[in-house]
Structure to design on (407 residues):
């Protein structure tokens, strides 16, 4: 589950991580109020206005139809008002959103942390995630903060330092010091970074997160270390252990069809193809998408109805798939292990009749318990539904349907 920058920073603060302070605002008027409060508290005349969307590259991204960036420095209250008006309610396009962009519903009014002092501010990168190849968490650090880490990895991989954490013993003090040394820090900044990384890792583990990306981590001109940005991804599968974090979900940032699928206990991911697919089991879903591609089509989605597929779940799946205008055909691929194929076939027929006026052809491949009975139910339904028992038969039918449609 992705969350906003301001939400991620609140989590970090709860674990003792120093962050760039800010106040979220959903209107220009609220942004001005927030800016006045921050200016009074910090004594600075500057604040930073940061678009809050679930995507990276906001600083380089632009509001559609203008040259306005997603992150801007405001040098006065009037600047705050003007910048907020240009951001809130408009669409921000970044390299991660794609050309469709994302609507900005709120901004974070943040303190200016690039103030003058004894030394120049310096930006770093720190990320934490699971390295599946080594079955342990890895902390990645780089002196090239503020840049896309993908570019750093491609062009100067030697500037990325990695420290793997043994899950049996956890993060050790010498590992944290190794990272601080690798970043070239010394003195007070070194001590600050050691404390920062230790608290950051504790936050990552105890919130069951799947990724932390702090870019940039800033060494201020007076040697404080703080998170200027915070990209936090929480593990959906562990949210039952964190009821206090569930409310952080912002469904306005998610695909409406994926939100609807979640509400119906379906696992759904929208793709860009023309053949909708409905299966029971993630492995079978991957095989089904391969079959669609081998048949000349492109999968329009990943949809797993689970092991207990019935008329209700099948109908919900149908409705979600059919809301995608790119879908020209639907392939249902069910293995009857836990659930009997004749019950699935009955569910398909009932769902078809309940929805009514389905204009796209549907291929149903049933294999397993009572597969023949399921095929008979499909064939005798009188509906525009085609049955298949073998996977190759389903693939051939998909190919035939696409050719007839001129796809």
């Amino acid at each position: 589950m992705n969350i906003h920058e301001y939400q991620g920073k609140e989590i970090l603060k709860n674990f003792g991580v120093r962050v760039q302070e800010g106040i979220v605002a959903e209107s220009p008027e609220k942004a001005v109020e927030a800016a006045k409060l921050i200016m009074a508290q910090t004594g600075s005349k500057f604040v930073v206005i940061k678009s809050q969307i679930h995507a990276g590259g906001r600083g380089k991204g632009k509001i559609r139809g203008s040259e306005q960036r997603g992150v801007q420095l405001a040098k006065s209250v009037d600047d705050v008002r003007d910048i907020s008006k240009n951001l809130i309610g408009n669409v921000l396009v970044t390299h991660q959103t794609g050309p469709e962009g994302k609507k900005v519903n709120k901004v974070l009014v943040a303190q200016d942390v690039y103030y003058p002092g004894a030394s120049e501010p310096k930006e770093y990168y720190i990320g934490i995630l699971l390295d599946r190849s080594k079955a342990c968490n890895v902390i990645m650090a780089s002196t090239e903060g503020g840049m896309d880490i993908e570019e750093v990895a491609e062009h100067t991989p030697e500037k990325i330092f990695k420290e793997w954490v043994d899950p049996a013993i956890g993060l050790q003090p010498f590992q944290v010091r190794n990272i601080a040394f690798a970043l070239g820090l010394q003195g007070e900044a070194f001590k600050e970074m050691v404390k920062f990384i230790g608290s950051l890792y504790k936050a990552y583990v105890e919130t069951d997160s799947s990724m932390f990306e702090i870019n940039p981590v800033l060494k201020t001109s007076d040697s404080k270390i703080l998170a200027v940005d915070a990209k936090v991804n929480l593990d959906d599968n562990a949210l039952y252990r964190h009821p206090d974090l569930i409310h952080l979900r912002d469904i306005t940032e998610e695909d409406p069809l994926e939100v609807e699928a979640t509400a119906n206990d379906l696992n759904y991911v929208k793709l860009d193809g023309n053949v909708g697919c409905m299966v029971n089991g993630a492995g079978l879903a991957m095989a089904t998408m391969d079959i669609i591609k081998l048949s000349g089509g492109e999968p329009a989605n990943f949809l797993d109805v689970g092991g207990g597929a019935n008329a209700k779940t099948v109908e919900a799946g149908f409705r979600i798939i059919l809301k995608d205008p790119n879908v020209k055909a639907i392939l249902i691929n069910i293995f009857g292990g836990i659930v009997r194929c004749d019950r699935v076939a009955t569910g398909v027929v009932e769902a078809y009749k309940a929805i009514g006026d389905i204009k796209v052809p549907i291929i149903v491949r049933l294999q397993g318990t009572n597969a023949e009975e399921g095929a008979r139910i499909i064939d005798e339904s009188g509906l525009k539904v085609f049955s298949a028992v073998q996977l190759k038969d389903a693939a051939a039918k998909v190919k035939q349907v696409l050719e007839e449609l001129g796809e």
